[in-house]
Amino acid sequence: MEERFLTVNVVTPDGLVYDHHARIVVAKTISGEIGIMPRHAPIIAPLVIDEVRVKRLDSDTHVDWIAVNGGIMEVRDDVVSIIADSAERERDIDVSRAERAKIRAEKMIEAAQAQDDVDQLRRATVALHRAINRINVSKHG
């Protein structure tokens, strides 16, 4: 019996970020974590800001980590397509830039709390979450 596998694509407005074959993909949806294997039923699920893990076909120990800033995951016919505002592989993350973004977001949160600005606080909290996610994913590289 032939081995089935997934084709995994991650696309952002800037283009294709990731395109590989995999045994399993694990992502975090708004309902919780989901694992996708070959022959998975078709689904469309909204993703939260988190890491996506892709266990590659070429090696049992080869796992790719991708920082995804929300988006949508569609699974159909052994193809996993993730469409996100932004996404970065662990090896492509500029850690010092992510650290600076984290510090900026923390300062924005303090300012928003001082001014009682709910909209600013929400934007700054999302920015902080994105920066922390990028830092965490970069540590897998």
From TrEMBL:
<dbReference type="GO" id="GO:0005886">
    <property type="term" value="C:plasma membrane"/>
</dbReference>
<feature type="domain" description="ATP synthase F1 complex delta/epsilon subunit N-terminal">
    <location>
        <begin position="6"/>
        <end position="87"/>
    </location>
</feature>
<dbReference type="Pfam" id="PF00401">
    <property type="entry name" value="ATP-synt_DE"/>
</dbReference>
<dbReference type="Pfam" id="PF02823">
    <property type="entry name" value="ATP-synt_DE_N"/>
</dbReference>
<keyword id="KW-0139">CF(1)</keyword>
<dbReference type="GO" id="GO:0046933">
    <property type="term" value="F:proton-transporting ATP synthase activity, rotational mechanism"/>
</dbReference>
<dbReference type="GO" id="GO:0045259">
    <property type="term" value="C:proton-transporting ATP synthase complex"/>
</dbReference>
<dbReference type="InterPro" id="IPR020546">
    <property type="entry name" value="ATP_synth_F1_dsu/esu_N"/>
</dbReference>
<dbReference type="GO" id="GO:0012505">
    <property type="term" value="C:endomembrane system"/>
</dbReference>
<comment type="similarity">
    <text>Belongs to the ATPase epsilon chain family.</text>
</comment>
<feature type="coiled-coil region">
    <location>
        <begin position="95"/>
        <end position="124"/>
    </location>
</feature>
<keyword id="KW-0406">Ion transport</keyword>
<comment type="subunit">
    <text>F-type ATPases have 2 components, CF(1) - the catalytic core - and CF(0) - the membrane proton channel. CF(1) has five subunits: alpha(3), beta(3), gamma(1), delta(1), epsilon(1). CF(0) has three main subunits: a, b and c.</text>
</comment>
<keyword id="KW-0375">Hydrogen ion transport</keyword>
<dbReference type="InterPro" id="IPR001469">
    <property type="entry name" value="ATP_synth_F1_dsu/esu"/>
</dbReference>
<protein>
    <recommendedName>
        <fullName>ATP synthase epsilon chain</fullName>
    </recommendedName>
</protein>
<keyword id="KW-1003">Cell membrane</keyword>
<dbReference type="InterPro" id="IPR020547">
    <property type="entry name" value="ATP_synth_F1_esu_C"/>
</dbReference>
<keyword id="KW-0066">ATP synthesis</keyword>
<feature type="domain" description="ATP synthase epsilon subunit C-terminal">
    <location>
        <begin position="92"/>
        <end position="139"/>
    </location>
</feature>
<comment type="function">
    <text>Produces ATP from ADP in the presence of a proton gradient across the membrane.</text>
</comment>
<keyword id="KW-0813">Transport</keyword>
<keyword id="KW-0472">Membrane</keyword>
<dbReference type="GO" id="GO:0005524">
    <property type="term" value="F:ATP binding"/>
</dbReference>
<dbReference type="InterPro" id="IPR036771">
    <property type="entry name" value="ATPsynth_dsu/esu_N"/>
</dbReference>
<keyword id="KW-0175">Coiled coil</keyword>
